[in-house]
Amino acid sequence: MQKGAILVLSGPSGAGKSTIINAASEEIGEYYFSISTTTRAPRVGEKNGIDYFFVSKESFEEDIKAGNFLEYAEVHGNYYGTSLKPVREALEEGKLVIFDIDVQGHRLVRAKMNDITTSAFITPPTLQALEERLRARCTDDESVIVNRIENAKHEIKALGEYDFTIINDTVEKAAKEFVIVAKAARLKQSREDEAKFIKTWLG
Ligand code: ADP
Ligand code: 5GP
To answer: Are residues 102 and 12 part of one domain?
Structure first.
């Protein structure tokens, strides 16, 4: 039986997801951030095992075959996936598990774990602001930035599939909203837990 809850965060690359999680982390209590596995190259400053597990395409495809992923998707020409085992363990420990995954990943998690999932779509106020932030971040080549912006134009259309939208205007405001969403996400109980509660409640 799973006692924890899931909070899925999606939004275009450069939306500010990492910034917001970092800004809010002290206030949202204990949580487990799901470190994804990817075949993309590390950016300057990114560390293996902290930002992502950086692996080869071959190794990723072996993990797919072995059924090791809760979900995976191809984004911007690279594989990204969530390993099942650490997520299952964190849920069994009753933790809030936070995912930073794309819209395809969100759909897959919803299909498998809808009853314990809350989701938020994070976006800068405009496409132009996204573009400016991606350039200011100075972590990607021009071609990579163009690719991410093109992808963002599609991703934004999935906004309605999420429980909440957080507009990252200022980090302070977005982080405050994120804390509220994270606290609400913790309150979600699985159907199994609800059934148990009702049985006990009835006496
Ligand atoms: P993501 O994790 O969604 O890819 P990041 O957290 O890396 O996005 O943010 C992208 C860039 O935008 C970073 O350089 C970050 O410092 C900057 N940024 C984040 N939020 C804001 C904001 N509210 N205003 C201005 N710049 C921001
Ligand atoms: P980035 O390369 O900017 O770190 O991430 C690119 C995109 O991949 C983002 O939209 C991010 O949310 C998504 N992503 C990161 N990890 C995963 C994952 O494990 N699964 C899925 N489906 N998407 C992911």
So the answer is: yes
Give the tens place of pLDDT for each residue, 104-123. Answer: 999 999 999 999 999 999 99
Ligand 2 within 6 A of 80 CB? yes
Closest residue by Cα to atom 10, ligand 1, is 14
Q: How far is CA 126 from the centre of its chain?
A: 21
Both 103 and 68 in a single domain?
no
Nearest to 118 by CA among 96, 102, 103: 96
pLDDT over 70 at 2, yes or no: no
Ligand 2 nearest-atom number relative to CA 52: 16
Domain CATH number, residue 48: 3.30.63.10
With a 6 Å cutoff on the Cβ, whether 16 touches ligand 2 is: no
> What is d(CA 109, CA 163) in angstroms, rounded to the nearest whole number?
14
